[in-house]
Amino acid sequence: MQYDSQRLKKILIQTKRQVFSEIPGDNASILKGEGYDFCELREYEYGEDVKNIDWVISAKMQKPYVKLFHAQKELNIVITALMSGSIFFGSQRLKQELLTEIAAILGYSSIKQNDPFTSFVYNSTLHINTQKTKKISAVKTMSEQFFNYACLGKSIDYAALQTTLVSQIKKRSILFLIGDFIECNDLDLKLLNRKHEVCVIILRDKYEEKPIELGNVHLIDSNNYRAFEGSISPSLIASYQAQIKKADHELFTKLQKSGIKFTKIYTHENPISKLIGLLHA
């Protein structure tokens, strides 16, 4: 696509400033183990390391007690962009640009917490975008590739998404799936969410959900280049709105039943507040 390199530069500067000044860092893990943050005190169990015994408390209680701490464990962050032709759409800015901004925020957040991140592009197959890294320069590399990715004429194979990611990502990770999730009836993420922590970020433009009356039009489907000629009438709009509302309800229900956190972000919105809400839900 290669459009507006100055716009990409502005996105990177803005997201970097937001992450390093607005998002709280260093999230403590809830895993128990050796670390610095005290978690709880409990009775010593046979076979445990005697170094963890609190001798002062043990003397008072007349039986051995050990201290447990929150483990400071490294998180593996995986950012997967679902790049179809429909991402190349937007009334104020393209969903592809919004996707790039969100990915940059997630990348910089990983670096801030000293966690490695990996990024992929997915449509009909999975493509490695950036290798596992903690280098801040990798955020720029990832963003450039997302921003300039040639998505027109491509569609998402939702049926194969879960199997593909399960086979590719071996180590438990926090997995962010970013896309518009339109016509995703075949989506199933239950197994993926059992193996990883999955967060879904849905991108939309307000005119996708509330289109305006246009009269007679000639349109091209950006996923498959199929042509449409007809009238965008009030009755057609009402039917379309009912369908997309039903599809979104089914998607949200499916994600909730699978225990997956999700949020929807529109192209006219600043994504930072919704991402903070998602990450701290």
From TrEMBL:
<dbReference type="Pfam" id="PF01882">
    <property type="entry name" value="DUF58"/>
</dbReference>
<dbReference type="InterPro" id="IPR002881">
    <property type="entry name" value="DUF58"/>
</dbReference>
<protein>
    <submittedName>
        <fullName>DUF58 domain-containing protein</fullName>
    </submittedName>
</protein>
<feature type="domain" description="DUF58">
    <location>
        <begin position="40"/>
        <end position="246"/>
    </location>
</feature>
